[in-house]
Specification:
The chain is α/β, with parallel strands linked by helices. It has one domain: Alpha-Beta Barrel (TIM Barrel). Helix content is 38%, strand content 16%. The protein has 11 helices and 10 strands. Strands 1, 2, 3, 4, 5, 6, 7, 8, 9 and 10 form a 10-stranded mixed sheet that branches. Strand 4, helix 3 and strand 5 form a beta-alpha-beta unit. Helix 3 packs parallel to helix 4. The protein binds ligand PBG. The site of ligand PBG has 11 residues, from helix 6.
């Protein structure tokens, strides 16, 4: 049938001017949607560029304080902290050390910029010499239950240092329950858990592994992260984490998994975070550097699509840039 048979149906009526388009716009980005990841290294007065992520740097603690202060001034509400230890070992012991890089960072950020929400990544891949997300057994497999004990210890040490939210990203079974129990026993029953529940074994993490110096020495993470082909499995993971006590859940990566974000939003009531990961950032930056795309426009469209899919929070390396633009009215 020809559209002329329905002359009353003219969607273009509402697209005639910028103001009309503005009042019917369904999805908006806000400063408070964004969470900036931060990579902390030992030492002082050093900002070390990450080549595969233009604009992202590993920062020493003094520089982290400056960076987080400027994010706070822009209105950013939360940062996600990753630590890069000086020494790595088989059990990732700096991950739960009182004087560990992340524990020191949390204490001083909390003291200097108390209103910034500090979310900590709870995992071992940055801290172990083999680069896996937990304790590796004799056969080279990550031992689930041994890892749980250490994860709980790591989360508790973050809480004791002053973290506001802990975010386990290891993908061990039962980790949310283990962490919840340990936090409660330690007097932190009010501390929320943001679980990386639907974390896929993705090739989009490549640049992050350079930034966090966390690539596995041998093998891959397919024994614990989700197969990118699976949808129902992600929903099962989310359901389990919520039963175990997760307060918020995450889908990661974001762009190749917008359908999963939408599914999670429709099936569950908990707040949903999406991680716009390193590879998604790197692709935009690289194409923009070649002059092949309009960086701002592509960035905004991507971030909007993640929000439209159902994300309540977006963890993104674009945070600082987008927030500046949002302040100036995009
Ligand atoms: C694991 C972790 C990873 C990311 C965040 N936490 C990588 C991995 O599983 O290897 C990836 C984030 C990104 O690519 O931006 N602790």
């Amino acid at each position: 049938m020809n559209w002329m048979s329905f002359p009353e149906h003219r969607p273009r009526r509402l697209r005639q001017s910028a103001t009309l388009r503005d009042i019917v716009q369904e999805t908006h980005l806000h400063v408070s949607d964004f969470i900036q990841p931060i990579f902390v290294i030992h030492g002082s007065k050093t900002r070390r560029a990450v080549p595969s992520m233009p604009g992202v740097e590993q920062l020493t603690l003094d520089c982290v304080l400056d960076e987080v202060r400027s994010l706070a001034n822009l209105g950013v509400k939360a940062v996600l902290l990753f630590g890069i230890p000086r020494k790595k070992d088989a059990l990732g012991s700096e991950a739960y050390a009182h004087q560990g890089i992340i524990q020191k960072t949390i204490r001083s950020l909390k003291h200097e910029i108390p209103n910034m929400l500090l979310i900590t990544d709870v995992c071992f891949c940055e801290y172990t010499d083999h680069g896996h997300c937990g304790v590796v057994d004799k056969d080279g497999q990550v031992d689930n239950d041994k890892t749980l004990e250490l994860l709980a210890k790591e989360a508790l040490s973050h809480a004791e240092a002053g973290a506001d939210i802990v975010a386990p990203s290891d993908m061990m079974d039962g980790r949310v329950a283990a962490i919840r129990k340990t936090l409660d026993k330690g007097g932190f029953s009010g501390l929320p858990i943001l679980s990386y529940s639907a974390k896929y074994a993705s090739a989009f993490y490549g640049p992050f592994r350079e930034a966090a110096e966390s690539a596995p020495r041998t093998g891959d993470r397919k024994g614990y992260q989700i197969n990118p082909a699976n949808r129902r499995e992600a929903l099962r993971e989310i359901a389990l984490d919520l039963e175990e006590g997760a307060d918020m859940v995450m889908v990661k990566p974001a762009l190749a998994y917008l359908d999963i974000i939408r599914d999670v939003k429709e099936h569950f009531n908990a707040p949903v975070a999406a991680y716009n990961v390193s590879g998604e950032y790197a692709m935009v930056k690289a194409a923009a550097m070649k002059g092949w795309i309009d960086e701002r426009a592509v960035r905004n469209e991507m971030l909007l699509s993640i929000k439209r899919a159902g994300a309540d929070m977006i963890i993104s390396y674009f945070t600082k840039e987008i927030v500046k633009d949002l302040k100036n009215g995009l």
